[in-house]
Predict the 3D structure of the following.
Amino acid sequence: MTTLLRPMSLTAELTYRCPLQCPYCSNPIHLADYQPELDTETWKRVLREAAELGVIQAHFSGGEPLLRKDLPELVRYARECDLYCDLSTSAYTATRERLAALKDAGLDAIQVSLLDSRKEGNDWVGGAESFKKKCDAIRWAKELGFPVSLNAVLHRHNLDHVEEILRLALDWEVERIELAHVQYVGWAFRNRTALLPTRAQLEHAQDVVARMQDEARGKLFILHVLPDFYQAVPKACLQGWGTRFMTVAPDGAVLPCLSAREIPGLHFPKVTEASLETIWFNSEVFNQFRGTAWLPEPCHSCERRDIDFGGCRCQAFLFTGDAGRTDPVCHKAPDHALVEEALRLAQAPARPFEYRTFKPAPTAATH
Amino acid sequence: MTTFDPKRPRLASFARYRWDKIREQHQIVYPEGVLVLNGTGAEIVKRMDGRTLEEIVGDLEAAFARSGLRPDVLNFLTGLYDHGLLNRDDPA
């Protein structure tokens, strides 16, 4: 049994610091509460423990992981532990020298976020002039021989540019692009009314993507992750709580999901308190929503019980105040009307963003 | 894809073969994904080092004293291609 439960992926959130202020950031709202950051030696221990526990991939993320001076040292160590290493970056602070150092350290792949196909849209959403820096960084990464993946986060302000985004990816000759609709947790939940696309936008984009997938076949791998708000059934969040994924946050808290730490009542042990193995197998928080025994109705008797595990715990909490309820995205959920209401509000003209900041407004601006 | 016929199949640049000693599995790892291979798949992938398709088929047929493996190998490669895990520079 324990062999089935070993984690495959570690998201190493090295820092919550970031030069961008994307209003859909998956980091927690109360960023300033989670300090100080782990030091280099502790991160190395985390990487080693993760590999020993069965983790295959170390996903270096943040915040902006390039802000950590020890990133090449950590990548080199992770590769020594036989971990596949990739980096998720805004590229805002990338230089050719830094990328070369990461190549030398053995980094396997780079994912660069792309906020829009157009400079003005990209720079507006991120709250900083990052478009040109992203273009430069992608070119350097290609020159250095990195496989590059673009991560284009989609929402109502850029969904109509999806063909342009894909043509940029083709022009840049990147290997892969992930078209990922905003997940409405963290900052994105605050900004959901400003970000949710309309159904018409989504249907148009799906047609465009299907056509472009045919056109790009063999040149560019296009992964399209559909927005769960417009699905009849919820996403199989994490492929099940505590089954494949673990996240270590900048302060060392070990999370089943990188968005879960602001669910009240859950205690997240830190790597400084126990080993990753103990936390993964024995901690209360990793066992709380593991498997299907805990599921409420209508999930427990649902034929999709072992497919989606009741959906996303963060989404259930954000909408209903109770992380143990059925994900309200599901058409069978008792709270489904809350999602319908959010979609109804999204048909209205967009409201201004509340940008990500270390000093958030006390109450959400877009409720 | 009946027309799929790569000349020198190789893994995509971001994909790496590894033996997982904890799970005792052959795997291809790539950004945010792991493809678990069966023994036959692993034998094919280990030979994807610049050899031609015909060389790979010939090597496998010799190693396992079998003939007629070409359709199985092509079928496996098509699966990799559809996962985006074959080198895109290879003519398809």
About this structure: Residues 156 and 197 of chain A are 4 Å apart (CA to CA). Residues 199-216 of chain A form the longest helix (18 residues). Chain A has 14 helices and nine strands. The beta strands of chain A are 9-13, 57-61, 84-89, 109-114, 148-154, 176-181, 221-225, 245-248, 254-255.
